[in-house]
Amino acid sequence: MMLLRGPWPRRPRLPPTPRPAGRVHPPPRTPTPQVLCVKLCGNLKYSQSHLYSTVVPPDEITINYRHGLPLITLTLPSRKERCQFVVKPMLSTVGSFLRDLQNEDKGVKTAAILTTDGREIPATTLMEILLMNDFKLVINKITYDVQCPKKEKLSMEHATDMENVKSLVHRLFTALHLEEFQKKREHHLLEKIDHLRGQLQPLEQIKAGIEARSEAKTSGLLWAGLALLSVQGGALAWLTWWVYSWDIMEPVTYFITFANSMVFFAYFIVTRQDYTYSAVKSRQFLHFFHKKSKQQHFDVVQYNKLKEDLAKATESLKQVRHSLFANARRESQ
């Protein structure tokens, strides 16, 4: 649209105002006409959207800071809604953030956080460390590039003051809540030990029966070996003094001794253990024990795990009670 120049319409003029004599006034200036030119090029709608649009793309993940805490905004894949997650950098970890994401949207089957070069970040990493650099968020095999806003670096004096404050708060919390925490831990360990003992009680009964049968079989096998050696010695004596002479039986006994040496050496090659009676007994006992365990469906792996957990819990309980006793002595003094 353009306003063009044109003739100005004439207006009726008023008679001049009488002025006092003796003063000369310049003649009035005629106003110069002005022209306003407005030129529209292209699509006005496109120009407005290009200049004034501030809408974030629906699939973009943004990170902003509100009241000093990071605020992660993303679109939930199932509901297609924008959701904001408030992160506590010093307490939250990568694993807790991913669990919160899956709890919020059950449609999130898989979720992981990777570095910009594709390496997976461990779940125990603190969010404070994660938000120092850009990263990738993978949700249901869809990768989103996340850019972290750069925070202003603190001066050395400010950083030192902050570390001192954190250390002081940690010491105060420990001093005020240590005894309460230790009592709660003692109660938790006692409950855990009772639960483990309840699980071990039926397994201990089955294990005792299997051990008794395995011990009986092992002892019977040892007595059978002693009887076999006795029969062998008696047979060689009978053949030497009543049937043949020593000149005939001497090479026979030599080859029998050499054959026994070969048997012992073969045992070492197979088992990588010296042929001692205690080692042979233990090995045979374990053989019978595992055989009976399979027959009675006794889970040896589960039993060993429960025993290890019980030993760790008992040791932790001793340490907690020792700390409580030391604190009580200091307070009494």
TrEMBL record:
The gene is MCUB. It is found in: Membrane; Mitochondrion inner membrane. It comes from Felis catus (Cat). Belongs to the MCU (TC 1.A.77) family. The keyword Cell membrane does not apply. Residues 104-306 form the Calcium uniporter protein C-terminal domain. The chain crosses the membrane at residues 221-240, 252-270. The keyword Calcium applies. Residues 1-32 are annotated as: Disordered. It is a multi-pass membrane protein. Its main location: membrane. Residues 14-31 have a biased composition (Pro residues). Keywords: Calcium, Calcium transport, Ion transport, Membrane, Mitochondrion, Mitochondrion inner membrane, Transmembrane, Transmembrane helix, Transport. This is Calcium uniporter regulatory subunit MCUb.
